[in-house]
Design brief:
homodimer; mainly alpha; 2 strands; elongated; DNA-binding
DNA sequence: GTAGATATACTCGGATAAGACGTGTCCGAGTATCCCTGG
DNA sequence: CCAGGGATACTCGGACACGTCTTATCCGAGTATATCTAC
């Protein structure tokens, strides 16, 4: 089980957009240059974020991306789901209904308990991610290194 | 992010081995026939489980697989880790240390907060899986459908 | 009848191909801007 | 001087190759068993 690398890019990029603020749009190329990432591929991730309503895009000159909502209303879960999709990691394919003994299980018509436990674990993971917003991240970073927000904002606004 | 299909097979198969008990070894072919799965590929998953110390294998006639420990000491986390490997789903590649502004972040030498939040969420998931053992699964199934354990055991012991 | 050696058949185990998905890239559609022209 | 129209250059957006991991399969190494033979 491996999470897409784009999730890490999306999280850091959304945080950068939070520093810049909603007044100014930032191009995918400049967002990519900040971390030396492939510009076109980061653009693809940004498209996914836009489709999910996390960021909004503006075409043409002076165009680019900006956060679509307040940072306090954007959870890490929103960003992860936007990139990875809404599908669950563990997918029950109901193998107990296949094979010679399927008649045994079908009699009860009960749900798959294996699937239930796996779902509960995944739910705990989702809850934790949904409890953290971009604002939480901003506060944590600011407390740890107060200079970062200002310097990052200046870097994106320059030029 | 998608979990390997083999995890579902391994979970159900380990549960079946728990029904059969440690006295008798069951071949990979018979375990696969129970769910109509590819025998050779299930064998590969069983090898991973054996390597992780979850099941033990016996070669030769009357050989096969059986649980290596008491079902109460085998957690769902053990089985998932055996198949998926010990790697974390979210892997921080430290992109903040790449690109033109890397000097800004390096100054603080603080840990990556994005990575920290993602780790915390994944830890919640692992905790939930580690809290459930094969015995818990057995109890849940027995309460839901009391006939299943006996009939499954008989199916594997027959022939 | 019993013990030992041997042949046997059955098991796992790792090495080997095919397919699916994530990764990376490209060029075209669309638009806000800027400039030029006319009033 | 001001307003309108058009050319322009820049942006995103979806369609197109490449690499890597999961999936699936095969045949060989090793062993417990059963048989046969000798005592």
């Amino acid at each position: 089980m491996r999470m897409s690398e784009g999730v890490e890019w999306a999280l850091h990029t959304c945080l950068n957009l939070a520093w810049v603020g909603p007044e100014r749009a930032v191009t995918a190329a400049r967002l990519a240059a900040f971390y030396d990432l492939p510009p076109a591929y980061l653009g693809k991730q940004l498209q996914a974020l836009a489709h999910a309503g996390v960021v909004s895009s503006s075409p043409g000159p002076r165009g680019g991306f900006r956060l679509a909502r307040e940072p306090g209303t954007i959870t890490l879960m929103d960003i992860v789901t936007a990139i990875e999709g809404p599908e669950k990691a563990f997918r029950c394919s109901e193998i107990r209904h296949r094979g010679p003994q399927s008649q045994i299980s079908q009699a009860g018509d009960h749900p798959c308990h294996v699937s239930r436990y796996m779902r509960e674990a995944e739910l705990a993971w989702r809850r934790q991610l949904a409890a953290r917003t971009l604002t939480d991240l901003q506060h944590t970073v600011t407390r740890s290194s107060p200079g970062i927000p200002e310097r990052t904002r200046e870097w994106f606004l320059a030029q």
